[in-house]
Amino acid sequence: MIKPDKGAPGNVVSGGRERSSCPIASTLDIVGDKWSLVLVRDLLTGKQRFNQFCDSPEGVPTNLLAARLRKLEAQGIVVKQPYQTRPVRYAYTLTPAGRALLPVLQEICRWANSYIDGTWVPPDAFMSMRAKL
Predict the structure, then answer these.
(1) Which residues of 58-81 are buried (b: 16+ CB within 10 A; e: fewer)?
(2) How many domains is the chain partitioned into structurally?
(3) 35-53 pLDDT, tens per residue?
(4) Quick one: pLDDT at residue 3?
(5) What angle do the packed helices 36-44 and 102-115 form, to 10 degrees?
């Protein structure tokens, strides 16, 4: 089960407002910003390290990348483990909750390809993946 933002009691999200009980609004509280689902996509396709995320074609600014990884970790979407000690560097992997977003991303791709001109068609390898929970 996804937990609320760190430090937020019960059903309150960042900014102190109460979280809606609507499943769409609640999900958007967690992954509805500009970069979170792009990071989930990258994790699903094998990226694990900060510098690998920086190489994505969207060009996520490093300060926002670090903030989104912290948020996704706090929300139980990703976990980080050190792969180097000096300096400490982390590899990120998806939790079962994060991997469960795969079919959502695939449907977003299908929708975008149908309704947004100029979107690229994802590779068959991505579109045929199955979530490993």
Answers:
(1) eebeeeebeebbebbbbbebbebe
(2) 1
(3) 999 999 999 999 999 999 9
(4) 56
(5) 110
- Higher pLDDT: 18 or 100? It is 100
Element (H, E) at 81: strand 78-85
Residue 77: give its domain's CATH number: 1.10.10.10
Domain residue limits at 58: 23-94
Q: Within a domain: residue 64?
A: yes
Write phi, then psi, for 6 (nearest 5 degrees).
-55, 135
Contact 33, 26 (CB under 8 A): no
CA end-to-end span of the chain: 13
> What's the predicted TM-score (pTM) here?
0.85
